Amino acid sequence: MAKIDWKPGNMIYPLPAVMVSVGTSVDEYNIITVSWTGTTCSNPPMCYISVRPERHSYELLKKAGEFVLNLTTHDLAFATDWCGVRSGRDYNKFGEMKLTPAPASVVNAPIIAESPVNIECRISQIIPLGSHDMFLAEVLNVKVEDEYLDSKTNAFALDRANLICYSHGRYFDIGKPIGKFGFSVQKKKSKKKKRG
């Protein structure tokens, strides 16, 4: 096998496929699907989304200064795609996709009730980059469906949520786990000998 040179481009895949909800009043609520998103810092918790200035949600984001990242699932795949290819200038995306705008705890933007995880964010900086502007944001609150919280360990069990990701123009279910963070250096448990 040989490697070939490819034109410079975004090949860091897979990425989350998230629906971003924005707007400060019911009449301007909108959803934009993005995959240019991720974590930028853990203390303070921060993330980003990158949005083209011509998108309808761009001005709503600038005006409100906040948004909600809503993680998407296998059951939300159609709505995730539809909200990414249709404009909020022409459609009420919540109504068209039969999604429920519900109150967030900290920000004015609505959460999408059908999403298993809603990440409430306040924009701290807008960075022009070229085709997209990056909205750098502080995470103020996270809402998680209680069914995805493991009662024994008090840890998220989001593998049960059937989350999806985006890779080079296609959506995928997330596969089976192959290890946990640090598994490569974890000491193996020794087997205790039975006393007889």
Can you give a write-up of this model?
There is one protein chain. The chain is mainly beta and 196 residues long. It has a single domain (15-173), classed as Electron Transport, Fmn-binding Protein, Chain A (Pnp Oxidase, Chain A, Roll). It has 3 helices and 12 strands, in the order βββββαβααββββββ. A 7-stranded antiparallel sheet has the order 3-2-6-9-10-5-4. A hairpin with a 2-residue loop joins β11 (164-167) and β12 (170-173). The longest helix has 9 residues, at 56-64. The protein is globular and about 70 Å long. The termini are far apart.
| Strands, count | 12
Helix- and strand-based class? mainly beta
**N-to-C span:** 57 Å
Mean pLDDT score: 92
Instruction: Please report the first level of CATH classification, the CATH class.
Output: Mainly Beta
Q: Shape from CA axes? A: globular
| Named CATH topology | Pnp Oxidase, Chain A
> Uncertain spans, ≥5 residues at pLDDT below 50?
none
Radius of gyration, whole Å: 19 Å
Short overview:
With 196 residues, the protein is mainly beta. It is built from 3 helices and 12 strands; from the N terminus they run E-E-E-E-E-H-E-H-H-E-E-E-E-E-E. Helices cover 11% and strands 34% of the residues.
Please outline the helices and strands:
Layout: E1 15-16, E2 18-22, E3 30-34, E4 37-42, E5 45-51, H1 56-64, E6 66-71, H2 77-85, H3 93-96, E7 101-102, E8 111-112, E9 117-128, E10 133-144, E11 164-167, E12 170-173
Antiparallel strand pairs: 1-11, 2-3, 2-6, 4-5, 5-10, 6-9, 7-8, 9-10, 11-12
